[in-house]
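We emphasize that the prediction below concerns an isolated chain of 265 residues; any contacts that depend on oligomerization or on bound cofactors are therefore not represented. The input was used exactly as deposited, without trimming of termini.
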Amino acid sequence: QVITNVSRLHCGKSPRPGINLGTGGSEINSLAFPFHSGGAEPSTLRLLKRDINMLDTISRDRIRHELELVLKEEKPEKAIRRADELGVLKKLHPSLTGDDWISEKFQKTRELSAPDSPSPELYLALLAYRLNEDVTEELITRLGLRKLQTRTLRDASHLKTRLNKLSVSGIRPSEIYELLYGIHHIALIAVSIAESPETQEKITLYLDKLRHIRPALTGRDLEEMGIQSGPHMKEILEKLLQARLDGQVTDKQKEIEMVKQITHQ
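Result of the prediction step, given as a token string:
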């Protein structure tokens, strides 16, 4: 059971006295939000819904901290669904939902991450995945997200706008590399989980193989071949990498021959 006590989060405010709900004499605070998979009595739900507006008075750092704790749970989708049912997610942002899609993707995330636990940033990227870029920025501001969280959400949101290029039939490895290079690996994993098996296959190819490929020749090698440092050298190195990625050259000697062809054009 994950409990987010809104009055506890509200700096400078003391929790209200507990209210006896007639459940065996136990008392709960009327501002406690139990995000768990079990059911709640109607009277409890009324109290929870009544005090949801208190979220507007709580600092974004405290709200973000509580969300981070939820995403570190063994099965955070249960807490997320509960928060959705109580209207708490809508208070974080109206576009957030804790539906079956979230439950399915969170479970898939754990299966792919086993035996390790998924990072909270990965769960967060999936939670925000269906938001467009503008709404994603609103959420980042609303929660005051940290640097890694912000980059992960932005990268995933940006990549979504380029998926049509990634799905082109016969796309070359070098084109996959160009589309995915520079995107944080957590964002890449989030997109691969959220999208089709075909997209997952290409992202996996990039993560497992393409991003590790480098030309055998270095800038120093090119200088020894009489090529000055600068834009021209950079262009040659990029062409060498592209050829390596696409399997057009497979060893250093073939790279040397390729450089000679380029410089004698």
